[in-house]
Amino acid sequence: MPQVTLTVNGKAHTVEVEGRTLLVELLREQLRLTGTHVGCDTSQCGACVVHVDGDSVKSCTLLAVQADGCKITTIEGLAKPDGTLHPMQEAFREYHALQCGFCTPGMVMSAIDLVKKHPAGLSEKEIREGLEGNLCRCTGYHNIVKAIAAAQDVMHGRRSELARAAE
Amino acid sequence: MNVVTPFEGIGASVRRKEDLRFLSGRGQYTDDISRPGQAHAYLLRSPHAHARILSVDTAAAKAMPGVVAVFTSADMAGLGGIPCGWQIHNKDGSPMAEPVHPVLATGKVRHVGDPVAVVVAESRAQAKDAAEAILVEYEVLPAAVDMEAALAPGAPALHDTAPGNLCYDWQIGDKAITDAAFAGAHKVVKFETTNNRLVPNAMEPRAAIGDYDTTSGDYTLYTTSQNPHVIRLLMGAFVLQIPEAKLRVVAPDVGGGFGSKIYHYAEEAIVTWAAGKLHRPVKWTCERTESFMSDAHGRDHVTRCQLALDAQGKFLGLRVQTHANMGAYLSTFAPCVPTYLYATLLSGVYAIPTIHAEVKAVFTSTVPVDAYRGAGRPEATYLLERLVDVAAAETGIDKVELRRRNFIPTDAFPYQTPVALQYDSGNYFATLDQALETSGWTGFEARRAEAAAQGKLRGIGISTYLEACGIAPSAVVGSLGARAGLYEVGTIRVHPTGSVTVLTGSHSHGQGHETTFAQLVADRLGVPIAQVDVVHGDTAKVPFGMGTYGSRSLAVGGSAMFKAMDKIIAKGKKIAAHLMEASVEDIEFDRGTFRVAGTDRSKALAEISLAAYVPHNFPHDELEPGLDETAFYDPKNFTYPGGCHIAEVEIDSETGRVTVVQFTAVDDIGRVINPMIVEGQVQGGVAQGIGQALLEHAVYDSAGQLLSGSMMDYTMPRADDLPPVGVATHATLCTHNPLGVKGCGEVGAIGSPPAVMNAVVDALRDYGVRHIEMPATPAKIWNIINAGRRPMAAE
Question: Could you tell me which CATH number the domain at A3-77 has?
Fold first, then answer.
């Protein structure tokens, strides 16, 4: 069986996989990182989004062997070791951007990449368009959009709505 | 000392306790659970909508790598069928047709996706590979897909025990009185519509793990359920014949339900039974495309109705004839959806003197249909609210005015409808006025003109709705055919040092119960929510429960907790009286403190609980030690949320695409515990309602193949399909539960589809459009616009 070496959330792993094993299966079943979810089988829902070398990727659409040598970040690797949440996680909590929580890991990972790639900031419309690849059945996206709008200010070091709320 | 900040009790938008684990990837959903030594099940499903099974050859599959076992229905002889939880009676008093629903298809398959065999293997991939090696010989039979075709004489018969594919022919209301009302009417408005079939699509696909303890003989089922105790009862008693004491059902974190995870599904019985056979855990996880052909679908009504009006536009009577699709088998609550959750709602917010409704439930070669968010009430609301708009157009009475003229007066509560329900409270004028103001109703024509200048067609639509939820009095539902009680159970366990565990029979799959229920305890017992732990979803921990559906968690489950807290306070007062050497009548309790009235003598709840568990100084003659109380709460009535939704849409006349540009919801859901969570519930419900109105449709071809059978084909609402949703509440309190709450989980999905469709029709008013069926897809709209243009071009 092929061997894959990859770094997940800062930790190196070498695992044997079948040729057909998907990255999400490696993460969930072999590394027991079950925070990354599988919500569909046609690459529509985005529940499985992780970062591969810094880019958001649907891990159900990448073979594990294609991730050989890559640096992967999953939802479990976002918070600081002391437990401090990433600003996007914090914003999701503050703005009630999650209900059942199933789409949330993929939504958060997509949102972080979306914000990072738009340093000039995103409008509400751009955030909605940027979430094309992620489905949520609970929230109607209203609060997800608000959370991302707030988190982008924090991530880009601008005075944020979140910070204002905290004052 | 117990100190609750005022920001944690009733009315506070407390941030959710459950979020930290969900946001950091530490949620524990069923598929996240791995039991030691587990094998994996994969189900081979029928590719045909209707066929006789001539033979099933599993020999090759059994020889495939990693295969542990292959089972067909022949191996499951002796198991019961999957039971139905509600029995409806026909007009003539005879019971509905209730064909057996075998765990695995027996003799025939009746819909695409009907399971034929199950493979258990070391890995899921091996099980799937082996399933491809099973040889099933089918004799394909003609399918009965469309309801009218299924009811037609000579239609292919799906079940021997359901002649004419009819499940039941039921009625409610008085036909003679209604006929008389129509005979004297100034005007009769006729309307026909289809309520489009939907696929619930909770983001977490269903999953189940069966586990068997060879030492104790105990079974455990982990499952994606909204009501684990109900599953234990249905599966244990009716399918597998396992006594409840030997069967534990755990529904851990569940990723959305919307009704689809209420029902007892074959896969739950399969993995539990197989675990007992194989003496190892067996896990099954649904793939999304598989869920399209195995999760219960929603809606799917075809209805004709007539409304009688007098010369002033007052409603005189309503007649309704509905055909409701049951699919191939009866799902757990399917029969009650188009009857007691639909026809009883046909009075809506209106004073209609007489109503007669007839409902035929039909078996078809499709996936079973059951409750989906709102369940019957969205169908009733859509029918009424489109009908009222059509009536407004045909009488020339303004659509808001027509509604006002027919609203149940605010001083008429309790109000008895002609279709069984008695509404306890409401103020439909208040929610209407608030929504009109918030939405800028009166300024709409200016916005329409502005849109027109940019080549867009703008429309506005209103829906004034009512629903019945918080189901319900057990004695009432029992008399109507429910085979279960519909109370709820709550335990309040005050620990020795004052922290609290709440055990609830309600189940949270996104609703935020861990927070809302903790707020109830904080508000009443004065315990900070950080010291309140809410436990649900495990039959081994929670005494009993009926689960979460029909917006019942707070109205019924919360009321059970309230009653349990009554008992805690009553016992606490006796202990406090003993400790402070006072009379129990003199003890007052307020948010965590027992006080001797009129004195400065007091004891904190934690001092009382410590005395209860370390009873050195304790009234042993009168009380048992401990501070742990359970209450069963059986509601006296349904609750009746209502309100007004207003949608504003813009149509791109070049593409036919409808965009909802503004949505206003003003809902009366009774007392609000956590406004943030309520807003989220309404926004999510509205999104599903907009999905139904504009995007979603489960479409079968004439052979019974589901054409919109994956997320590539079935249009789920995405972020850029939806507007921001403005939510406000206007409370009239429920009069018959101790919290005054009504329920908020379904209002969004119930009120919104007609608001959107009324807006779409309004936008197209210059095109002579009377009605458009859901979903209002771009193709449909483009054809309407261009059909109107052609004659102009020909001139």
Answer: 3.10.20.30
